[in-house]
From TrEMBL:
<comment type="similarity">
    <text>Belongs to the ArgJ family.</text>
</comment>
<dbReference type="GO" id="GO:0006592">
    <property type="term" value="P:ornithine biosynthetic process"/>
</dbReference>
<dbReference type="GO" id="GO:0005737">
    <property type="term" value="C:cytoplasm"/>
</dbReference>
<dbReference type="GO" id="GO:0006526">
    <property type="term" value="P:L-arginine biosynthetic process"/>
</dbReference>
<dbReference type="InterPro" id="IPR042195">
    <property type="entry name" value="ArgJ_beta_C"/>
</dbReference>
<feature type="binding site">
    <location>
        <position position="408"/>
    </location>
    <ligand>
        <name>substrate</name>
    </ligand>
</feature>
<dbReference type="InterPro" id="IPR016117">
    <property type="entry name" value="ArgJ-like_dom_sf"/>
</dbReference>
<comment type="pathway">
    <text>Amino-acid biosynthesis; L-arginine biosynthesis; L-ornithine and N-acetyl-L-glutamate from L-glutamate and N(2)-acetyl-L-ornithine (cyclic): step 1/1.</text>
</comment>
<feature type="site" description="Involved in the stabilization of negative charge on the oxyanion by the formation of the oxyanion hole">
    <location>
        <position position="123"/>
    </location>
</feature>
<feature type="binding site">
    <location>
        <position position="158"/>
    </location>
    <ligand>
        <name>substrate</name>
    </ligand>
</feature>
<feature type="site" description="Involved in the stabilization of negative charge on the oxyanion by the formation of the oxyanion hole">
    <location>
        <position position="124"/>
    </location>
</feature>
<keyword id="KW-0963">Cytoplasm</keyword>
<keyword id="KW-0028">Amino-acid biosynthesis</keyword>
<keyword id="KW-0068">Autocatalytic cleavage</keyword>
<dbReference type="Pfam" id="PF01960">
    <property type="entry name" value="ArgJ"/>
</dbReference>
<dbReference type="GO" id="GO:0004042">
    <property type="term" value="F:L-glutamate N-acetyltransferase activity"/>
</dbReference>
<keyword id="KW-0808">Transferase</keyword>
């Protein structure tokens, strides 16, 4: 799959959201897990949708994640999803697992679908049991007629400062195909599976095995290429539902327009990933690291991840300090095979290292560039033809304040 995403054949839908594809609806409400904010969201498809998921690599996998994996494994079909914020239902033992199963049962009954067609997700504080009376009342109060994708996007947030949604349309077999998505993520974000919650819907008709493979590969180019703080959480997953209501011919890698679908799906994944990185806890800047000229894709990804994960790089960018030595250091410990004499680094349009040697630059010009809300770090390795892109954010005093008092 091509790393580069273009928009030539992709129509970006203004105010696009998770319910943009045909046959999908979504909403959110307050049920009392949190004090005042919306805290229960739902997604529903008119018919069972082919489903794929990717999950956190953390060894402590939360109860809702286990239940959702079981649902998808049965038939690779989902029709509805419920998400609560505020409490993660992680590290809660047998009671937490029973609560996650009950959420699935209640949701299935609410929408009159088979239990294995329902999925559950939770996000928030680890180690506390869900207030199930509130959850029961909340699921009972879901009104499918009162749809609001904006409320869904709000209900799934924790320390996020903004909602994250996107939708695009493409043409397949002369049919309009739409892909929508929503995500949450602000802290505990590290490139080791999609350390956040992401939900993607499409009305495309897609072969289930091809859908699963596409999500896994695109995750490696998007959600796995972001970091905020180096922590991988217990609950994180991305779910992809395809209900086929666009009525195109079944998509798979042999379909002549498969690449068009993958490109559009990749655009949605990358857009959500970048929004998560931009909205990192306490962040003031999005950092994009472009690595080219590596001898292998994995090497390019490793270098990009090392740079965006470096607290020293992140704090330098926050302070608009052109300390390129921190970038070079991160490249050197990335584990990728490099020749230092071939490495070049630029901060935006300004070259600071050329073939391993410092380049004279105007400090004030670089400082002015580093005050922008998006900062590009461009790295050339000079070993080959492979490239990768990663996204992160600066590390601020506000990040410490938020996480020093998360439980209070």
């Amino acid at each position: 799959m091509n790393q580069t995403i273009t928009t030539e054949k992709i129509n970006i839908i203004a105010n696009g959201n998770i319910a943009a594809p045909k046959g999908f609806s979504a909403g959110g409400l307050h049920c009392g897990v949190r004090k005042k904010k919306l805290d229960l969201g739902w997604i529903y498809s008119e018919i069972p949708a082919k489903a794929a998921g990717v999950y956190t690599m953390n060894s402590f996998q939360a109860a809702p994640l286990l239940v959702t994996k079981e649902s998808i494994a049965e038939e690779q079909l989902l029709q509805t999803v419920v998400v609560n914020s505020g409490i993660a239902n992680a590290c809660t033992g047998s009671q937490g697992l029973a609560d996650a199963y009950e959420m699935r049962t209640l949701l299935a009954e609410k929408f009159n679908v088979e239990p294995n067609y329902a999925a559950v997700a939770s996000t928030g504080l680890i180690g506390e049991l869900l207030p199930m009376d509130n959850i029961r009342a909340g699921i009972s109060a879901i009104d499918p007629e009162k749809q609001s994708s904006e409320q869904f996007e709000t209900a799934i947030l924790t320390t996020d400062t903004r909602e994250k949604g996107v939708a695009v349309s493409i043409e397949i077999n002369g049919k309009k195909v739409t892909i929508g998505g929503a995500a949450k993520g602000s802290g505990m974000i590290n490139p080791n599976m999609a350390t956040m919650l992401g939900f993607i819907t499409t009305d495309a008709n897609v072969d289930p095995s091809a859908l699963d493979q596409a999500l896994k590969q695109l995750t490696d180019q998007s959600f796995n290429m972001i970091t905020v703080d180096g922590d991988t959480s217990t609950n994180d997953m991305v779910l992809l539902l395809a209900n086929g209501l666009a009525e195109n011919e079944v998509l798979n890698p042999n379909h002549p327009e498969w690449d068009v679908f993958v490109e559009a799906l990749g655009f949605v994944c990358q857009t959500l990933a970048k929004e998560i990185a931009r909205d990192g806890e306490g962040a003031t800047k999005l950092i994009e690291v472009q690595v080219k000229g590596a001898d292998a894709k994995q090497a390019a990804q490793a270098i990009s991840k090392a740079i965006i994960s470096s607290n020293l790089v992140k704090t330098a960018i926050h302070g608009a300090d052109a300390n390129w030595g921190r970038i070079i250091t991160a490249i050197g410990y990335s584990g990728a095979k490099i020749n230092p004499d071939h490495v070049s680094v630029a901060l935006g349009p300004i070259s600071v290292v050329k073939n391993g040697v410092p380049v004279a630059f105007d400090e004030e010009e670089v400082k002015a560039y580093l005050t922008k809300d998006t900062v590009l770090i461009d790295v050339s390795i000079g070993n080959g033809m492979e490239s990768a892109v990663g996204w992160g954010c600066d590390l601020s005093y506000e990040y410490v304040r938020i996480n020093a008092s998360y439980r209070t």
